[in-house]
Design a protein that fits this description.
The chain is of the alpha/beta class and about 375 residues long. It has one domain: Nicotinate-nucleotide-dimethylbenzimidazole phosphoribosyltransferase (CobT), large domain (Rossmann fold, 3-Layer(aba) Sandwich), CATH 3.40.50.10210. Helices cover about 45% and strands about 10% of the residues. The protein contains 13 helices and seven strands. Helix 7 (about 205-215) crosses helix 8.
C-alpha cells in the first residue's frame, strides 16, 4: 500500500489509502482521497467557534433505555460495572439503544515539527515518515490490533516534508493553515463510521503536547515534559527549555485556546481537533489515545467544557503530562497498560472492549424481551 502525501499549505488534502474492515471486503487498500475547498470566513476560527457553541447534546432517552435494560436483566444490580456505563455512553452518543458498533475506524494523524531542530527527541525526524510507511505496509502494531478487532484504519500524512514552524520563534501554523488542517481532520469520518479511535504519529510531538498543555493550563515546561520516545536527562532539559521559550515568545496570545493551538501546536493536533468535532456533529462516539491526542482534545474543552462529552480516554500513557491533562479534563482511562507506543494502539485495543460492551448490552436486551 503506497502512501499518498498531503499538502496542507495549499488547501488541498489527500488521505493515505485506508485499510477497510473485513465486513466491507477484507483488509485491502481502499483510496479515500478528497480535496477540501478552503472557503474560510474573514476570521477563519469563527466557523469553529460557532460549531463549538452549538454542539448537539447526548440522546438521553437512548441512554436511559440501555440503563433500564441492564436493570431488568437477570443479574445483580450494577454487577457489570463500567461495562454498563460504556454501553450507556455509546447509546447516548450514537442515538442507538441497544448500541451497536458496525463500522469502527482508527484514524491516525502524522505531523512533523520545526522545534525538533533543538534536539528534543532521540529519534530522527525521518522516523515519522518511516512509521507512516510501516502502517501503510501493514507491519505496524496498530495494523495487527485492527485485524484482531475488525477495525478500519486510515493514516494521514500531514505534509511530513514541510515541518511546522519552530514554536520557540514563530507560530507553528498561521490561522488559515490551522483551520484548513482542522477542516481536513473533519474528513476522517467522511466515509462513514460509528466509533472513531484517534491516534497520532510525530517525532517531538510529546514536547509539543507539553507546550500546548502548559499554554492551556499553566505551569513551566519541566512540569509537563516527559521521556517521550526515550529521552535522557539532557534531552528532557532541552524539552523543558523549548516549552518555556515557546511560552515566553507567544505570551498573551496563548490565552485563547485556538490561538494556542496554532501557536504552539501542530498539524496532527489541529486535525485531531477537527476529527473530534466532526464526530460530535455526526453522532459518532470517540476514543482518544495518547498524550498528543489528549492535548489536542484539551483545546476544544477549554473553548467549551462539554466538547468532549462524546469522548472516552482509551488508555493512559506513562508520560507524566498525560496524567496531568487527563485529570484536568476529568477523563478516566479504560486501560492503563503502560503503552507509550503511539499510533492509536491503546484506542484500537479499547475499541474491542467497547464493541464487547455493545454486544453484551444488545444480547442481554434480547433476553429481557423474551
Amino acid at each position: 500500500m503506497q502512501a499518498l502525501r498531503s499538502a496542507p499549505l495549499t488547501g488541498a488534502f489527500t488521505a493515505l489509502p485506508a485499510v477497510v474492515p473485513g465486513s466491507e471486503g477484507g483488509y485491502a487498500a481502499a483510496c479515500c482521497c478528497k480535496e477540501i475547498a478552503s472557503d474560510m470566513t474573514a476570521k477563519p476560527f469563527d466557523d469553529f467557534r460557532t460549531l463549538l457553541a452549538t454542539l448537539p447534546p447526548a440522546d438521553a432517552a437512548a441512554e436511559t433505555r440501555v440503563r433500564t435494560l441492564f436493570a431488568k436483566a437477570d443479574k445483580p444490580k450494577a454487577s457489570l460495572g463500567r461495562i454498563e456505563d460504556i454501553a450507556a455512553w455509546l447509546a447516548a452518543w450514537s442515538g442507538r439503544a441497544p448500541p451497536a458498533v458496525n463500522r469502527p475506524l482508527v484514524a491516525i494523524f502524522a505531523g512533523n515539527h520545526g522545534a525538533v531542530r533543538h534536539a528534543i527527541s532521540p529519534q530522527p525526524v525521518s522516523s515519522t515518515a518511516n512509521a507512516v510507511e510501516l502502517c501503510a505496509a501493514g507491519g505496524a502494531a496498530i495494523n495487527q490490533v485492527c485485524i484482531a478487532n475488525d477495525l478500519g484504519l486510515k493514516v494521514f500524512d500531514l505534509a511530513l516534508d514541510i515541518p511546522t514552524g519552530d514554536i520557540t520563534e514563530e507560530a507553528a501554523l498561521d490561522e488559515r493553515g490551522c483551520t484548513a488542517t482542522m477542516a481536513f481532520g473533519m474528513e476522517a469520518v467522511a466515509g462513514g463510521a460509528d466509533l472513531l479511535c484517534l491516534g497520532d504519529l510525530g517525532v517531538g510531538n510529546s514536547t509539543i503536547a507539553a507546550a500546548l498543555c502548559a499554554a492551556l493550563f499553566g505551569g513551566k515546561g519541566a512540569g509537563w515534559v516527559g521521556p517521550g520516545s526515550g529521552a535522557d536527562a539532557a534531552v528532557m532539559a532541552r524539552k523543558a527549555e523549548v516549552v518555556d521559550r515557546a511560552l515566553a515568545f507567544h505570551g498573551a496570545s496563548l490565552g485563547d485556546p485556538l490561538d494556542a493551538l496554532r501557536g504552539v501546536g501542530g498539524r496532527e493536533f489541529a486535525a485531531i481537533c477537527g476529527a473530534i468535532l466532526a464526530a460530535r456533529m455526526q453522532k459518532i462516539p470517540v476514543l482518544l489515545d495518547g498524550f498528543a491526542a489528549t492535548a489536542a482534545a484539551a483545546v476544544l474543552h477549554r473553548v467549551n467544557p462539554a466538547a468532549l462529552d462524546h469522548c472516552l480516554l482509551a488508555s493512559l500513557s506513562p508520560e507524566p503530562g498525560h496524567a496531568k491533562v487527563t485529570e484536568r479534563l476529568g477523563l478516566k482511562p479504560l486501560f492503563d497498560l503502560g503503552v507509550s507506543h503511539g499510533e492509536g494502539v491503546g484506542a484500537g485495543l479499547a475499541a474491542g472492549f467497547v464493541k464487547a460492551a455493545a454486544l453484551i448490552s444488545s444480547g442481554m436486551a434480547a433476553a429481557v424481551r423474551c
